[in-house]
Amino acid sequence: MIGLCRDRNGDFGYPEYSRREGFIKIMRDFAMRSAAAVLIALVLAACNDPGTGPAEAGNVYRHSIDGAPSTLDPARAATVYSSVVVVNVFDTLYRYKYLARPYELAPNLATGFPEVSGDGLTYTFRIRPDARFADDPAFPDGNGRGVTMHDLVYSLKRHFDPEQRSQGAWLWAGRIRGLDAWGENGADYDEPVEGLEVIDDHTLQITLTEPYPQLVYTLATGFSALVPREAVAHYGREFGVKPVGSGPYRLVSFDSSLARLARNPNFRREPLDLAAEGFDADQHGEFGLQHLDGQSYPFTDRLEIHFIQENAARWSAFSSGEVDNVIVPNEQVDSALASRDPVEFKPRIRERYHGYAGLEAGFVYTGFNMADERFGHHPDPVRDEANRALRCAIRSAFDWNARNNTFYYGIGKIFPGVIPPVVPEYNPDKSRESVTRDLDRARALLAEHGWSADTLPELDYGLISGVQQRQMYAQLRAQLVELGFPMEKINADTFATFGDFSRAMKNRRLDILFLGWTLDYPDAQNTLQLFYGPYETPGSNNFNYRNPEFDALYDQAATMQPGPERTELYRRMNDMVIDDCVAISGLSRTRIHLWNRNVHMLPDQEILGGFFMRFVDVDRASGE
Amino acid sequence: MEFLQYTVRKLVGGIPLIIGVTLISFVLMVYFGPDKTYELLSKNPTAAEIEQVRTQLGYDQPFWVRYGEYLKELATLEFGYSDSTGERVSSILGRTVPVSLLLLAPGFVLGNLLGIVLGLVAAWHRGGWIDKTIMSFAVVGMSISFLVVIIAFQILFGVVLGWFPVRGWNVYGPASYLHYVTVPTLASVFVTLGYNTRFFRAVLVEEMGRDHVRTARAFGAGAVEILWKNVLMNAMIPIVTRVMFSIPLVVISGSLLIESYFGIPGVGKVTYDAITSGDQPILKAVVGLTAVLFVLILIVNDILYKVFDPRVSLGRVSLK
Fold first, then answer.
1. Is residue A616 helix, strand or coil?
2. SS3 of A70, please?
3. Residue B260 · residue B154 · CB < 8 Å
4. Which positions 33-62 of A are in contact with B (Cβ < 8 Å)?
5. CA separation (Å) from A565 to A552, A561, B147?
6. Considering only CB atoms, which chain A residues are within 8 Å of B307?
């Protein structure tokens, strides 16, 4: 019986509690002491981070960015987030001028631009003799050694070593004589490559298989950063989180929230020449850069790069002064801007911060899987034309202004085709018909080619799980329903991750794709290659566009130096993409930057990645 | 001796549980998990290059071979390297787990202790205005989204008042620890307190109506004595069960929102990133170790039953 007046010991009264309480007391004391010991151990463990400590002396620039890099190994620095850190830890032969727009290359580790042979096949590069890697235990005596051209050769070879899982090999694949074969034949680093001849420690001759005008651009990307072989050997696979380079900063700590960098004392460069960097007093005068002219950079002792994906957290961190800059998130645009066109900041924002609005070096666009005969390429010319009409009708039904106003606060720049405004080959006078909604024309096209609600194909729209992606899908579907598509024929194919989405795309399982592209270099070839037939999936031609005429022009332009003739070819290719209605394109987003007034910089990270950070100066004495 | 036998028996009995959990999670990871192949490839890869990456990731191996490898990794605690960063998984866990524990421990302890205290007070005043007030606040706490609480607290304490940092984790001693842990802890307590109070009150109210409590009152015992000795101690089994089994969730998943929004490099954020990017070495380690943690907690839980209820035998549960 569970006694009426018994406790769980089955006894009346309290004497039993004394034994029990004694036991509980012992256990409680033990638990408390254990908890205290564990807590102390945890504090010690959590503090055992070389980058953690009380505020150090010296200037620090605290940069915020909306994503985190997964690796800092230049061979796999494929994202903007990686690149921002990589170009500060490592050196590249070239960089872009800080302030000049359109973007212009400038020597970085190189002493000048290369000497190019008459046939455009041989490039001779020279680098500074005083460059040194940062001190690191990876080196025999812990002191960084001098940088040589052997390091560049080693770094380029790594991209062709299958073990390295390079994501930058495409920049040089098939371009440098013998480099591809070196990788296919076992990737022995002691074996020479015919096209990479080290003349002396500071001179390298690169021999190409055919002229490659973009070669110098490729040597300004994070992928081309110079890596010391002994550091890769020392850290092995962990080189991606313990990088060692010869850039202006060295990495102190790195995790999913923050990268801390400190000035690399071995870094040497000529003082900053503002005029050579493209300084224009009218454009840049208000940013307080003038006093930096003639000074040696980097100007800050430390960098903190905060990876803050959540807009609200990033904005709060900026508002509280914990980070020095922010790209204004959508939901804060109205609180920051007095006018969207032209972009003007509210007085209270202008009083507290510097502001700058600039176009991204890239664009967003939507396209069709042309390998699908239901609406893409078709061997029957009549059906092929009907399919083209269907794609053109969908494009005409698409409302770019609605897309811009809904998702890009109405300040994105809509342009026709796939040559975005940021590259020199952009044609501002191009007809805007392909980006202008015309529902009547769209319906007429469908009727003319016999498309009806019954015959229209079902379309799978691929998207990565997320609110905004689904909203974009819903917007497109509503517009297509207006065109005459039955709603049930526009389906969303949702993927949990970009990897899954990418797998479906590369295996041609999606019909309509919404994509974004960030330029690797300011040359329209970088976007036109997205439509080059031989690059169809799993290559970068995700829409599987095949047009022999386009491909012939691409091949012809590939070896041409920049100039009006090449621009003309680029524009003809752009016309083909527009005429064939391969893509619904495009829009370049406008980034609105704000930064504290005591920070002297222009934080434009388009194309430049994190190059600008070496030129940032912070005046902490003037307050936050 | 009884304790040792019991522990060994439980550990052995936990092996099928671990195998079951890891098998199910491995099936989910392999057949429904993300595929990293195309994320790791350069542009314009050849078929051979695609196959090469699949081989490096182990995707070309039969299921049972991969699962066997996984069990071996779990047994040796050697999970290899992250597919994304290249960092050793054991280093990642060694770096992030202490941060998460330090971050969440105060909120976890305070949330439960305050929940018990408020539950006791509400139960003692059952039906009165104190009870209703406490329960009303509990409902308010339960009704507000954790995300909203986090953002509101960041703005209030970080931006408006400026007392604490909005985000970050630059901990190098007790003072800096308090500096960075306070706002996350307040947010965590604010949200969990409602749930905890409601649960503990329900358990304590049930205990309050038992005969031995009435008897204690008849003996003339005071309120504190009754609540402590007769009510709380006798209600400890459901309380301990709830608290213990929430530990793995707190350690692994409970910290995700806090770590993301407060920019704290803990294991919750690492796990979330691994899920979204398909970083299987990290996922395998976290899932496997969580299963082991559950088994260990089962054992500790049973021992605590014995502490709080001497009738419980570690050999078998019986009523005297």
1. coil
2. coil
3. no
4. 39, 41-43, 45-47, 49, 52-54
5. 15, 9, 56
6. 23-24, 27
CB < 8 Å from B in window 310-329 of A: 310, 312-313, 316-317, 319-320, 322
Q: Smallest Cα–Cα separation from A325: which of A353, A351, A298, A349? A: A353
String of DSSP letters for A178-203: THHHHHHTT--TTS--TTEEEEETTE
Under 8 Å between Cβ of A475 and A526? no
Cα–Cα distance, A122 to A402 (Å, whole number): 50
**Rounded Cα distance, A17 and A5, in Å:** 15
The residues with which A253 forms a beta bridge, in sequence order, are A260
Show the CA angle centred on residue B22, arms to residues B17 and B23, nearest 5°.
100
Q: How confident is the model at residue A28 (pLDDT cuts 50, 70, 90)?
A: low
Closest CA to A168 of A183, A158, A181: A158
Q: Which pTM was predicted?
A: 0.84
Q: Which of A76, A71, A79 is nearest to A225 (CA)?
A: A76
Contact A170, A178 (CB under 8 A): no
The answer to whether B220 contacts chain A (CB < 8 Å) is: no
Q: Are strands A203-207 and A196-200 parallel, antiparallel or unpaired?
A: antiparallel
| Best of B166, B244, B258, B261 to mutate (most A CBs within 10 Å, chain A) | B166
Q: Cα separation of A580 and B294, whole Å? A: 59
3-class SS string, A346-378: CHHHHHHEEEEEEECCEEEEEEECCCCCCCCCC
Contact residues, chain B, for A5 at CB < 8 Å: 211-212, 215
ipTM attached to this prediction: 0.78
Q: What is the DSSP letter of A113?
A: P
b/e string for B101-119 if b means 16 or more Cβ within 10 A? bbbbbbbbebbbebbbebb
Which residue of chain A is at minimal alpha-carbon distance from B209?
A4
Per residue in A418-445, pLDDT (tens digit) is 999 999 999 999 999 999 999 999 999 9
SS3 sequence, A130-156?
CCECCCCCCCCCCCCCECCHHHHHHHH
- How far apart CA B95 and CA B33 sit, in angstroms, is 25
CB A463 within 8 A of CB A496: no
For residue A449, which amino acid is it?
H
Each residue of A311-336: pLDDT tens digit?
A: 888 999 999 899 999 999 888 888 89
Q: For residue B235, what is the DSSP state?
A: G
Nearest CB among B39, B40, B86 relative to A238 is that of: B86
**Cβ of B153 under 8 Å from any chain A Cβ?**
no
Distances in whole angstroms, Cα of residue B24 to Cα of each of A223, A543, B34, B74: 40, 37, 16, 15
Cis check: omega of the bond before A381, within 30 degrees of 0: no
Could you give the 3-state DSSP secondary structure of residue A512? Answer: strand
Mutate to test the interface with B, among A6, A234, A310 (most CBs of B within 10 A): A310
Distances (CA, A) of A274 to A105, A217, A601: 15, 22, 12
The most distant pair of C-alpha atoms in chain B lies apart, rounded to whole Å, by 85
- Among B182, B193, B177, B144, which residue's Cα sits nearest to residue B258? B182
Q: Is the dihedral of CA A99, A105, A106, A108 positive or negative?
A: positive
pLDDT digits (tens, 9 = 90+) for B53-99: 888 888 888 888 888 888 888 888 888 999 888 899 999 999 898 89
Block residue for tokens 């598509």: A485
Residues 57 through 86 of chain A touching chain B, CB cutoff 8 Å: 68, 70-71, 73, 76
